[in-house]
Amino acid sequence: MQKLIVMLSTIAMVAAVPALASAHCGNCAMDHQPEAGQKQAAMHQGMEGHDHSGMATAGNMLDLGEKSEQGVKAMAHMKDVRAAMAKMGMKTTHHFMIMFNDEKTGKSIDSGTVAVKITGPDGTTTGPLELVGMQGHFGADVILDKPGEYRFQVGSKLADSVTRQFEFKTVVK
């Protein structure tokens, strides 16, 4: 029963991502509100040209940055879920998530196939690991248990059937 409660709590945290994503970036003095006439994208609209990769956002959410490819903007985040998963006896340390938006309309793209390969500090690469679509983002629980730099190579084939690649990185201490 306790494992079920912890698992449901973890799911609730993941479900809160869209609300957290639209929150003000508390680590900088910039106001990321959209200009008049623009539709607000799912996350950090108006941040083009500002490198926020690696900045901590709400709670233990880590912003891995934004990348654009062939008309689609990808925004990646990670949430540290180590404590909740340890209570269930699991080794998972983070929930990796990525959101996609059409650059022209700002509309969220939430259908398609997405996977990630993770290269760890020791140079070994996992995967590909399928990312599951959930409430406006694609995500998966991952194990990042060694200190150092991790690189996330995300491959996608979204609803428009175009194959795109995005790369993000972060340092785990």
Annotated CATH architecture = Sandwich
The mean pLDDT is 74
The dominant shape is: globular
Uncertain runs with pLDDT below 50, 5 residues or more? Answer: 1-58
Count every helix, treating DSSP H or I runs of 4 or more residues as helices.
Answer: 3
Class from secondary-structure proportions: mainly beta
Within CATH, the superfamily carries the name Periplasmic metal-binding protein Tp34-type
Distance between the termini: 33 Å
- The sequence of SSEs as H and E is HHEEEHEEEEEEE
**CATH fold-type name:** Immunoglobulin-like
State the helical fraction.
Answer: 10-25%
Number of strands: 10
Number of domains: 1
Rg computed from alpha carbons, rounded to a whole number of angstroms: 16 Å
Main sheet summary: 10 strands, antiparallel
Structure description:
With 173 residues, this protein is mostly beta strands. The protein has a single domain, classed as Periplasmic metal-binding protein Tp34-type (Immunoglobulin-like, Sandwich), CATH 2.60.40. Strands 1, 2, 3, 4, 5, 6, 7, 8, 9 and 10 form a 10-stranded antiparallel beta sheet that branches. β9 (148-158) and β10 form a beta hairpin. The termini are far apart. The chain contains 3 helices and 10 strands; from the N terminus they run ααβββαβββββββ.
Secondary structure: elements and pairs:
Elements: H1 2-15, H2 17-21, E1 55-56, E2 61-69, E3 72-80, H3 82-87, E4 94-102, E5 108-109, E6 112-119, E7 129-134, E8 137-142, E9 148-158, E10 163-172
Antiparallel strand pairs: 1-2, 2-3, 3-4, 4-5, 4-8, 6-7, 6-9, 7-8, 9-10
